Amino acid sequence: MIGESRSEFRLKNPPEDGISSVKFGPNSSQFLLVSSWDCSVRLYDVQANSMRTKYTHDRPVLDVSFQDAVHSFSGGLDNKLKMYDLNSNSESVLGSHDNAIRCVEYSNEVNVVLSGGWDGNVKMWDTRSSQCVGTLLQPDKVFTMSNVGEKLVVGTAGRKVFVWDLRNTAYIMQRRESNLKFQTRCIRCSPNKQGYVLSSIEGRVAVEYFDTAPEIQKKKYAFKCHRIKDNDIECIYPVNAISFHQVFNTFATGGSDGYVNIWDGFNKKRLCQFHRYNTGITSLCFSHDGE
Predict the structure, then answer these.
(1) In terms of Cα–Cα distance, which of 222, 225, 223 is closest to 235?
(2) What is the pTM (predicted TM-score) of this model?
């Protein structure tokens, strides 16, 4: 959204502070939700390059998600989970946490909104009844989470990773620890439902698999990225964002170095690198068709 070229353009009416999350609509590459530290959530028509609507929270917004083409959810430092009807431009508070809401996801598999907070809870919300229908207790602050099919992967402080089955939340399916040495920044599940990719503040990314069979676990690995050498000094940058291509199962990473890289993670190679942006990358999102 920063450069100008045939394949890249800047959106008009951008937020007035840092962007925390960008999400394309579930079945269209036309609409993009953007949350920001300026306390706003904005809906853009990408094709027309116009802002369709905007609503606000009392404090900075940390994440946003679509349910369908006309309903969005957002949460942030005001501890509130808001639901917004994009057709009628009406908003309501679906619920709240005891601390900031860091992550918001929607699960088509069980038809619930998922909110992860710094209070150490992941809450499941039924949008029809506006009720919390489940609370998944985590051992520490929720930093990132991603769901695919019936699985929800949660990354917390202390480098912990938990895999939940949303159809049966009475117990944790898998308890893991990040293979990376430092704080987890982002987790995204692969569209083929075989595993997830995890990034950290030390310029590294790990490719992980759900299947615990030894022959499958042998495939997992980690690699260095978003590092820049300058006069024989290596500068290491956090990898803040990951997004999977829904068709090809490749993924993009964005770092505080201002670069976006595209990876074929399962063949262990980098496909391309975008030009350097003038600030760190905080969020990435492929459209559903990957175009």
Answers:
(1) 225
(2) 0.94
List, in sequence order, the alpha helices (H) in the chain.
214-217
pLDDT, tens digit, for every residue of 116-169?
999 999 999 998 888 999 999 999 999 999 999 999 999 999 999 999 999 999
Task: Return the half-sphere exposure (C-beta side, CA atoms, 13 A cut-off) of residue 36.
Answer: 18
Secondary structure string (H, E, C) spanning 236-270: ECCEEEEEECCCCCCEEEEECCCCEEEEECCCCEE
Within 10 A of 106 (CB to CB), how many other CB atoms are there?
20
Domain span at 25: 15-143
Contact 65, 26 (CB under 8 A): no
Residue 10's CB is within 10 A of a number of other CB atoms, namely 10
Domain of 270, CATH number, reads 2.130.10.10
Does any domain span residue 43?
A: yes
